[in-house]
Protein backbone atom coordinates (compact mmCIF):
# COMPACT_ATOMS: atom_id res chain seq x y z
CA UNK A 1 0.00 0.00 0.00
CA UNK A 2 1.48 3.28 -1.11
CA UNK A 3 1.30 6.19 1.29
CA UNK A 4 0.64 9.48 -0.41
CA UNK A 5 2.53 12.34 1.15
CA UNK A 6 0.79 15.68 1.03
CA UNK A 7 2.77 18.84 1.14
CA UNK A 8 1.41 21.74 3.12
CA UNK A 9 2.31 25.38 2.97
CA UNK A 10 3.00 26.81 6.40
CA UNK A 11 1.81 30.35 6.98
CA UNK A 12 3.68 32.21 9.68
CA UNK A 13 1.00 34.51 11.07
CA UNK A 14 3.49 36.66 12.96
CA UNK A 15 5.36 37.51 9.76
CA UNK A 16 2.16 37.84 7.72
CA UNK A 17 0.56 40.32 10.10
CA UNK A 18 3.70 42.44 10.37
CA UNK A 19 3.38 43.17 6.66
CA UNK A 20 -0.30 44.17 6.83
CA UNK A 21 -0.92 47.91 7.16
CA UNK A 22 -4.23 47.44 9.01
CA UNK A 23 -2.49 45.31 11.65
CA UNK A 24 0.18 47.93 12.24
CA UNK A 25 -2.46 50.64 12.46
CA UNK A 26 -4.49 48.76 15.07
CA UNK A 27 -1.87 46.97 17.15
CA UNK A 28 1.43 48.76 16.62
CA UNK A 29 3.07 49.60 19.94
CA UNK A 30 4.04 53.05 18.67
CA UNK A 31 0.49 53.87 17.63
CA UNK A 32 0.05 56.15 20.65
CA UNK A 33 -2.89 56.38 23.00
CA UNK A 34 -6.48 55.97 21.99
CA UNK A 35 -6.91 59.69 22.64
CA UNK A 36 -4.95 60.31 19.45
CA UNK A 37 -7.11 57.91 17.41
CA UNK A 38 -10.66 58.89 18.35
CA UNK A 39 -12.59 62.05 19.11
CA UNK A 40 -13.64 62.92 22.66
CA UNK A 41 -17.26 61.94 21.99
CA UNK A 42 -16.22 58.58 20.52
CA UNK A 43 -13.97 57.86 23.50
CA UNK A 44 -16.78 58.69 25.92
CA UNK A 45 -19.22 56.45 24.05
CA UNK A 46 -16.75 53.54 23.83
CA UNK A 47 -15.77 53.90 27.49
CA UNK A 48 -19.36 54.34 28.64
CA UNK A 49 -20.74 51.36 26.73
CA UNK A 50 -17.94 48.99 27.75
CA UNK A 51 -18.15 50.25 31.35
CA UNK A 52 -21.91 49.77 31.48
CA UNK A 53 -21.66 46.23 30.07
CA UNK A 54 -18.89 45.36 32.54
CA UNK A 55 -20.82 46.83 35.48
CA UNK A 56 -24.04 45.06 34.51
CA UNK A 57 -22.29 41.68 34.19
CA UNK A 58 -20.31 42.30 37.39
CA UNK A 59 -23.55 43.04 39.26
CA UNK A 60 -25.27 39.88 38.01
CA UNK A 61 -22.27 37.64 38.72
CA UNK A 62 -21.83 39.30 42.12
CA UNK A 63 -25.43 38.55 43.10
CA UNK A 64 -25.08 34.96 41.94
CA UNK A 65 -21.81 34.50 43.85
CA UNK A 66 -23.24 36.06 47.01
CA UNK A 67 -26.30 33.80 46.79
CA UNK A 68 -24.13 30.72 46.31
CA UNK A 69 -21.80 31.55 49.21
CA UNK A 70 -24.65 32.58 51.52
CA UNK A 71 -26.72 29.51 50.61
CA UNK A 72 -23.74 27.21 51.11
CA UNK A 73 -23.00 28.75 54.51
CA UNK A 74 -26.67 28.43 55.51
CA UNK A 75 -26.74 24.76 54.48
CA UNK A 76 -23.56 24.07 56.47
CA UNK A 77 -25.09 25.71 59.55
CA UNK A 78 -28.29 23.65 59.19
CA UNK A 79 -26.24 20.45 58.72
CA UNK A 80 -24.14 21.29 61.78
CA UNK A 81 -27.20 22.09 63.88
CA UNK A 82 -29.05 18.90 62.92
CA UNK A 83 -25.97 16.74 63.56
CA UNK A 84 -25.17 15.68 59.99
CA UNK A 85 -21.73 17.20 60.32
CA UNK A 86 -19.53 18.14 63.26
CA UNK A 87 -17.33 21.22 63.09
CA UNK A 88 -14.04 21.18 64.99
CA UNK A 89 -14.15 24.82 66.11
CA UNK A 90 -10.72 24.63 67.76
CA UNK A 91 -9.22 23.55 64.42
CA UNK A 92 -11.08 26.35 62.63
CA UNK A 93 -9.81 28.90 65.15
CA UNK A 94 -6.24 27.61 64.82
CA UNK A 95 -6.38 27.81 61.01
CA UNK A 96 -7.86 31.32 61.10
CA UNK A 97 -5.09 32.46 63.44
CA UNK A 98 -2.49 30.88 61.17
CA UNK A 99 -4.00 32.69 58.18
CA UNK A 100 -3.94 35.99 60.12
CA UNK A 101 -0.25 35.49 60.89
CA UNK A 102 0.49 34.78 57.22
CA UNK A 103 -1.36 37.95 56.19
CA UNK A 104 0.54 40.04 58.75
CA UNK A 105 3.84 38.52 57.57
CA UNK A 106 3.17 39.16 53.89
CA UNK A 107 1.72 42.65 54.31
CA UNK A 108 4.19 43.87 56.91
CA UNK A 109 6.60 46.13 55.05
CA UNK A 110 7.09 43.87 52.05
CA UNK A 111 7.66 45.68 48.77
CA UNK A 112 6.04 44.83 45.45
CA UNK A 113 7.99 42.54 43.19
CA UNK A 114 9.55 44.23 40.13
CA UNK A 115 7.15 42.39 37.79
CA UNK A 116 4.08 43.63 39.64
CA UNK A 117 5.50 47.16 39.91
CA UNK A 118 6.17 47.32 36.16
CA UNK A 119 2.60 46.17 35.41
CA UNK A 120 1.18 48.75 37.81
CA UNK A 121 3.29 51.44 36.13
CA UNK A 122 2.00 50.35 32.70
CA UNK A 123 -1.61 50.60 33.91
CA UNK A 124 -1.01 54.06 35.39
CA UNK A 125 0.57 55.29 32.14
CA UNK A 126 -2.38 53.88 30.16
CA UNK A 127 -4.89 55.58 32.46
CA UNK A 128 -3.07 58.91 32.19
CA UNK A 129 -2.94 58.72 28.39
CA UNK A 130 -6.63 57.74 28.13
CA UNK A 131 -8.30 59.91 30.76
CA UNK A 132 -11.49 60.47 28.74
CA UNK A 133 -11.89 56.79 27.87
CA UNK A 134 -11.23 55.81 31.49
CA UNK A 135 -13.73 58.39 32.75
CA UNK A 136 -16.38 57.11 30.36
CA UNK A 137 -15.68 53.55 31.45
CA UNK A 138 -15.93 54.47 35.15
CA UNK A 139 -19.23 56.29 34.62
CA UNK A 140 -20.63 53.47 32.52
CA UNK A 141 -19.48 50.91 35.09
CA UNK A 142 -21.32 52.73 37.88
CA UNK A 143 -24.45 52.98 35.73
CA UNK A 144 -24.22 49.27 34.91
CA UNK A 145 -23.87 48.39 38.59
CA UNK A 146 -26.92 50.44 39.49
CA UNK A 147 -29.16 49.09 36.71
UniProtKB/TrEMBL annotation:
Q: Which UniProt keywords apply?
A: Membrane, Mitochondrion, Mitochondrion outer membrane, Nucleus, Phosphoprotein, Transcription, Transcription regulation, Transmembrane, Transmembrane helix
Localization (cell): Mitochondrion outer membrane; Nucleus
Its membrane topology is listed as: Multi-pass membrane protein
Gene Ontology cellular component? mitochondrial outer membrane; nucleus
User: Looking at the Swiss-Prot or TrEMBL record, what is one Pfam family this protein matches?
Assistant: FUN14
Biological process, per Gene Ontology: autophagy of mitochondrion
Task: Respond yes or no to whether keyword Ribonucleoprotein is given for this record.
Answer: no
Q: What is this protein for, i.e. what is its function?
A: Binds directly and specifically 1,2-Diacyl-sn-glycero-3-phospho-(1'-myo-inositol-3',4',5'-bisphosphate) (PIP3) leading to the recruitment of PIP3 to mitochondria and may play a role in the regulation of the platelet activation via AKT/GSK3B/cGMP signaling pathways. May act as transcription factor that regulates SREBP1 (isoform SREBP-1C) expression in order to modulate triglyceride (TG) homeostasis in hepatocytes.
Membership in a protein family: Belongs to the FUN14 family.
Q: What is this protein called?
A: FUN14 domain-containing protein 2
Query: Which organism is this entry from?
Result: Buceros rhinoceros silvestris
Amino acid sequence: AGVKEDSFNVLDLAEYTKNQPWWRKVFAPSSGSSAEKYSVATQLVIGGVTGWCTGFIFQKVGKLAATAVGGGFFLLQVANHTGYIKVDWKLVERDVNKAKQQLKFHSGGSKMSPEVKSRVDEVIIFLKKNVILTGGFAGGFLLGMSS
